Amino acid sequence: MTSNPPSQSPPPTLSPAAAAAALRWLVDSGADVLTGSGGGSWLQPPYRMPDPKPGAGTPAADRAPPPPPPPPATAVQARTLADLRSEAEARTFAVRRPDAPLVFADGNPESGVMIVGEAPGGEEERQGRPFAGPAGQLLDKMLAAIELDRSRVYITNLSLWRPAANRVPNAAEAAELLPFLHRHIALVRPRLMLLVGGTSAKALMKTPSGIMRLRGRWHDIEVEGHSYPALPTFHPAYLLREPAQKRLAWQDLLAFRSRLRTV
Q: Which stretches of sequence are listed as region Disordered (predicted)?
């Protein structure tokens, strides 16, 4: 007598919101490449994903178009921070929503310490200053832990406006925003920079690597003929979602404090 194999239930289907959250978690964790494009079993020889067959996969009509090429560099004329604010207000950017208020900066531009985040959120937009919401409250605690506060740092974001749906700027938007951030850095002339979040770190370092690979290591950011030491670390919003990563963030903060005492 032979028994029939037990029937297998179909795999669970994620809702669009759950799928987006899972993808966001993977990106924040540093996953930026796929291991393969086809199905297969890792438990059977040859222990690798099979090569895709020619023409297999998503039909061409359903494939997402490639991302647009980065726009040409924007010449920024500002000679002071006040000029930079005015010039940003007068420009049109792809990431800028109609009538979106500018969220320029907070803190002390003479402090020698510059913190660069990704983009303001809803609370930042309402208050008109970066890191004003729950992530900002955590950032303040992180700074206090290494004997800093907003009077001893200068804080801004890659994007000076909140993108639609509270997302981060995409690669094309980041390329358009980068000349303004470069000019911002050149005007402030910080001794050290702390890059919080993968979007700002990737844009300034011109790399596709995720924050998991970038964090905890010093990099030199070249801006207008000068080099600025920068340390990437996790964004506070990510730490609120993944508190277990605070251990690594604390290591980054200690490294930042140690170097700050020598410059």
A: 31-75
